[in-house]
Amino acid sequence: MGELRRGFASDNNAGIHPAIMKEIEAANTGHAVGYGADPFTSEAERLLREHLGNDTEVFFAFNGTAANVLGLWSVTRSFNSILTASTAHIEQDECGAPEKITGCKVLTVDTPDGKITPELLVRHMHGFDFEHHAQPKVISLTQATEMGTVYTPHEISIIAGYAHGKGLLLHMDGARISNAAVSLGLPFSEFTTRSGVDILTFGGTKNCLMYGEAVCFLRPGLSENFKYLRKQGMQLASKMRFISAQYIGFFRDGLWEKCAGHANGMAKLLEEKLNGISGVRITQKVESNGVFVIMPKSVAEEVRKTFFFYPWDEAVSEYRLMTSWDTTEEDIEDFVRLLKKEISHQ
Amino acid sequence: MGELRRGFASDNNAGIHPAIMKEIEAANTGHAVGYGADPFTSEAERLLREHLGNDTEVFFAFNGTAANVLGLWSVTRSFNSILTASTAHIEQDECGAPEKITGCKVLTVDTPDGKITPELLVRHMHGFDFEHHAQPKVISLTQATEMGTVYTPHEISIIAGYAHGKGLLLHMDGARISNAAVSLGLPFSEFTTRSGVDILTFGGTKNCLMYGEAVCFLRPGLSENFKYLRKQGMQLASKMRFISAQYIGFFRDGLWEKCAGHANGMAKLLEEKLNGISGVRITQKVESNGVFVIMPKSVAEEVRKTFFFYPWDEAVSEYRLMTSWDTTEEDIEDFVRLLKKEISHQ
Amino acid sequence: MGELRRGFASDNNAGIHPAIMKEIEAANTGHAVGYGADPFTSEAERLLREHLGNDTEVFFAFNGTAANVLGLWSVTRSFNSILTASTAHIEQDECGAPEKITGCKVLTVDTPDGKITPELLVRHMHGFDFEHHAQPKVISLTQATEMGTVYTPHEISIIAGYAHGKGLLLHMDGARISNAAVSLGLPFSEFTTRSGVDILTFGGTKNCLMYGEAVCFLRPGLSENFKYLRKQGMQLASKMRFISAQYIGFFRDGLWEKCAGHANGMAKLLEEKLNGISGVRITQKVESNGVFVIMPKSVAEEVRKTFFFYPWDEAVSEYRLMTSWDTTEEDIEDFVRLLKKEISHQ
Amino acid sequence: MGELRRGFASDNNAGIHPAIMKEIEAANTGHAVGYGADPFTSEAERLLREHLGNDTEVFFAFNGTAANVLGLWSVTRSFNSILTASTAHIEQDECGAPEKITGCKVLTVDTPDGKITPELLVRHMHGFDFEHHAQPKVISLTQATEMGTVYTPHEISIIAGYAHGKGLLLHMDGARISNAAVSLGLPFSEFTTRSGVDILTFGGTKNCLMYGEAVCFLRPGLSENFKYLRKQGMQLASKMRFISAQYIGFFRDGLWEKCAGHANGMAKLLEEKLNGISGVRITQKVESNGVFVIMPKSVAEEVRKTFFFYPWDEAVSEYRLMTSWDTTEEDIEDFVRLLKKEISHQ
Predict the structure, then answer these.
(1) What is the CA radius of gyration of chain C?
(2) Taking CB atoms and an 8 Å cutoff, what residues of chain A touch C77?
């Protein structure tokens, strides 16, 4: 298959943890009823309830875009609006899927660090009960954020209180929820269910799984029609047990924590090594597995020939470096060595 | 995980072929660019072109519902209509996904055996250019059909000619395309590309894969915007290489043919054993891996306690029995023995 | 503006009754708050409640397609299905608007006379609670039907009972509700609210108005979000008073009854005159303002050069002749005379 | 009907010009083919071509929201994005209709005066050809703007050039296009077709008509499927001649110009009278028929008991005052007198 280039492009460029592969194989025995009525799925659901609270209702989908969109769809009507950060995945990286599928308006606010606050959101909190205006219904935040920062439970509680006070719900895009949990040193429930989150996309693909994300309803009464929406949203897996088995592996022996902890640690190491290099500036707090840096464009272009990574804001020559469960210290040393070399050649 | 009940409920109740598992493991080495820009995907695409024709454009999706809907979406506008059999998966088993996603009207015709013909379709072929009427744009057939029957290349050519003559396109839902190919003893291209099919859902999940189906555009010029539709349709896999690797395994050493051949053979065996049992009547030609039988409801209910399978038409006590790549002769013998016992107890 | 050709093409080819014009002019005095918060609209709503029952909630829309689609939209989610006759306006003549706007599947049954029955509908009443299958939610009938026939209150009650027994709602497309009321000799409420209809499109445009139809919710609790759906459905009129004023005129001095009675009478006259003409056969009972006839195609083509009307079923040379509030006896005599002449020339 | 309160709430609170009423009556003679195939519609289309250019294709819709949304729908696919000012009607006042109907993302920029510029839009001009990102396709501006300001032809040309240079189209929401034309002292074509606008909502309802707005395609090749979209969008009027007749009246003897000129003049008068009142500050240039003022909230609340008008930005106590073709000097004098009285009472 040729040689695969390593890099820092995305945590989904990584492979699958061997323990997950084993779990998939273990599930590959004989027949199982399709579409989720199998014991693997029951067990995976039980594990997520264990981590998120007993009222949690769990539905697996194929990928993160779908988990976000289906979760939002289930609690909105098309005349609603969804409020989020302008950097959010649902705004920038889902090709308009939220609008197409939900029919809702997505309203955004600019943030310094990917984190929304009530103060920022207030500009969209008007027109309630006025038929000319799309009705605000859900606030969506991302944990860890697209900028690698992490909300504290307190910050989330404040947004949840604000949302609920206005009759809105709080959605969390947890594509990198494991990285956030490790960063905070807290169980998942602490900054989700207990902080007032209503609907959660629980992500696994970016943290060592092959595919499959979970839409989790953290309060009763929100998932009434979800089974139909998932099917109509083309996200009901026939051989569901192979998604579920991965989540069994994810929680076995704290695999998720080891993988996310490793990725976060590698980001910290990268931050350390980049600090002090002249011409390189880190632009966001490194709180999970992403490092945002400004560096000379010509340098970046050279380094990208060897290590794959993406520009973030071309206007200011800012780049995004993501680490993953399989990033090695050697990857980082090689990358930094090359970067320094290219800078010295300028 | 407890004991899993075997049965004839669906070919997607089966597991994954060990050779496919190996292929997935082989792809799990290091980093690969996400979303399909990896060598596994290139190779899988090449293999599909080899089997379907050099002009074929290939896009993987997660499941069959999505592959059907995205394929139809790419060649329609919302004011179009899609014509199909009333038994079609897009009509009965996708929870309205085609209407929701494409906005199109789905128009159906009743058929004796799941196979549409121009004569049946003619009732919907009117209102062209009349703005009050949804404009017919695609005919969709299923190969093998939901009734286990198989279209000949000639039958498909006739429908294709009819479609093209009216300015319509021909879509094939090939969820069980391997079973059809084995049944016909013909290469895939013979009853798809060469018979005039324009858009094909090439299925693998029902024939020993874990997940992943291919939307194949068999003529140039049909896929222009497809990459956006797939993403907005929430069907772009980040770790695409693990879908692609399965298709590499699917075509290696004719695995697809062995698996589908086995399933078809088991259906034939089941037919043989059921023939002549008093009170049991086979209702459709057994041409692929499904056997449709009328049997006393009380008998069926008893047998279903041991072997899982679905009613098809409760009004006439008709049941559907699907075989798969991993059905064994023992499965069939056990099933038939139990069935005979229950009939004798009546 | 040149000469306008008279004919039997549609009741909406007619003009506006002078009394309606006067009512519009009377409303054209000074300022009125837009979007329905005006006294004309309150009065029109009161009048519709008077005729349909005190629990009725009334919302005006611009046209009949919109009134049908918005009414159906308000009581469905996209994973639902809508059951109707294959001749229904929502199936044949709205260019797929129901599917586009509601996302629902529209399922049809063939009928001999445009009238659905529980026996015909039963084929679509399955798959409840099964996530793969679009969930039946509304039955839609047309009164008077597209074939000019009229349901009795008893027939409607039976369908309503069947719908409600299965947890479905009953929708009536009343584009020609006045013609049905006159035909039955009953008040509107008798064959709507009291017969179990839940949502009603109350039509006026085909019975002497300029534009504007009413979505009427006949039972409490169905219109919760309707004001947003109407606005998002692009059907909220800014200068609403000019729709409302027409409905005030419609009910003043029984104008609606005179107009519909005249149209129905003209259809009866046309039927009489056509009866017994050799080569001409009336195919449906003439119960409202439509007459369906089979006649030689060559004759029809000649007559259509003078009188405008539409083919209904070209396969059998069937044509539709609609009368309206302004059809004259002379129109009919001239038409029949010409028809006879053309037949004799054959 | 009780007494109607006059005010400055909206130009659509006004009635219909008597000359328009006469034109409607003149069209009410005998039969006319429905849905636009009538001589009134041909004439109205001809008049719009005369004013906008010979390549113009004209389609009438019921209201402004629909004209905007259908125009945008016709040139987009759901994976596109539409760029506009955060104050735009399509963003604030259409209850999410653009998202629901087109499926597109609507991206906004804040502006000081309702006028977009390339510099403001640049933040959304990225991600071209990147399947994860909604593809920018149309820029929409409003003329006159929602803030009462008016773009010069030069300003529009610059935006058009920018749009076309990036492969985008330029849409104009011309709900108040007459007010802009009068303000600029230029023919319509000068700041539309000749300035590079591609799709235009030509508004009449806010300038003395009863209902009916025109979607105008100013360049060939943009309207291919529009007739189907209009019907599926529930905007095809059956008795079209009564919309068309209004446009014939609109252009007869320059009625549009007199009406818009009067409204603009009244806004100027209002501005003059408000200038210099202590505690009252005009916040936007008065270039068409809207005056934006900051005044003490308590004063505004008192005055609103007599004259109806809307708050614009409650955070800063800003209000919007709209004049119309039937605003009188007396209205303004009475309003200003009352306002002064309330201020002196503070």
Answers:
(1) 20
(2) 225, 228
Contact criterion met (CB below 8 Å) for B159 and B170: yes
Residue B129 backbone dihedrals phi, psi, to 5 degrees: 75, 5
Of D201, D119, D106, the C-alpha closest to D155 is: D119
Q: How far is B140 from chain D (nearest CA, A)?
A: 22
Sign of CA dihedral D119, D120, D126, D128: negative
Token digits for C175? Answer: 């584009």
Q: What is the ipTM of this complex?
A: 0.96
> Per the CB < 8 Å rule, is C100 touching B93?
no
What is the per-residue burial (b if ≥16 Cβ within 10 Å, else e) of C120-153?
Answer: bbeebbebeeebbbbbbbbbbbbbbbbbbbbbeb
Record: contact C131-A79, CB cut-off 8 A? no
Cβ within 8 Å, pair B96-C78: yes
pLDDT score of B3 more than 70: no
Q: How far apart are CA D174 and CA C111, in angstroms?
A: 47
Which position has the higher pLDDT, A6 or D289? Answer: D289
**Structure confidence at residue C4 (pLDDT):** 60
b/e code C21-49 from CB counts within 10 Å (16+ = b): bebbbebbeebbbbbbebbbbebbbebbe
Give yes or no for a contact between B170 and B164, defined as CB atoms under 8 angstroms apart: yes
pLDDT at A341 > cutoff 70: yes
Closest Cα to residue A239, out of B212, B146, C65? Answer: B212
For residue C293, the SS3 value is strand
Which chains share 3+ C-beta pairs under 8 angstroms with B? A, C, D
Burial of D102 (0-12, 13-18, 19+ CB in 10 A): buried
Distance from CA of D214 to the nearest CA of B (A): 18
In chain D, where are the structural domains located? 18-253, 255-344
pLDDT, tens digit, 9 for 90 and up, residues A241-260: 999 999 999 999 999 999 99
Rounded distance between C-alpha atoms, residue A73 and residue B100, angstroms = 13
pLDDT bracket for residue D2 (50, 70, 90): very low
What separation in angstroms does the CA of A234 have from each of A61, A117, A173, B174, D144? 9, 33, 20, 17, 44
Chain D positions in Cβ-Cβ contact with residue A93 (cut-off 8 Å): 132-133
**pLDDT tens across B248-274, in order?**
999 999 999 999 999 999 999 999 999
Q: Do domains B18-253 and B255-344 have the same CATH topology?
A: no
Beta-carbon-side half-sphere exposure of residue B177 (alpha carbons within 13 Å):
30
Q: Do C10 and D34 touch (CB under 8 A)?
A: yes
Tens of pLDDT, residues D38-78: 999 999 999 999 999 999 999 999 999 999 999 999 999 99
Stated pTM of the model: 0.97
User: What's domain B255-344's superfamily in CATH?
Assistant: Aspartate Aminotransferase, domain 1 (3.90.1150.10)
pLDDT band, very low/low/confident/very high, at C1 (cuts 50, 70, 90): very low
Pairing of strands D318-322, D310-313: antiparallel
For residues A71 and A192, the answer to whether their CB atoms sit within 8 Å is no
Give Rg (Cα) of chain D: 20
pLDDT of residue A1: 45
Cis ω before C144 (30° cut-off from 0): yes
Length of chain C in residues, anyone? Answer: 346
Beta strands in D116-156 (DSSP E): 135-142
pLDDT above 90 covers a percentage of chain D that reads 93
Average pLDDT, chain A: 96
CATH number of D18-253: 3.40.640.10
Mean pLDDT of chain B: 96
- Which residues of chain C neighbour A78 with C-beta distances below 8 Å? 232
Q: Collect all residues with Cβ–Cβ distance below 8 Å to A303 and sequence separation of at least 6.
A: A335, A338, A339, A342
Position D150 pLDDT exceeds 80:
yes
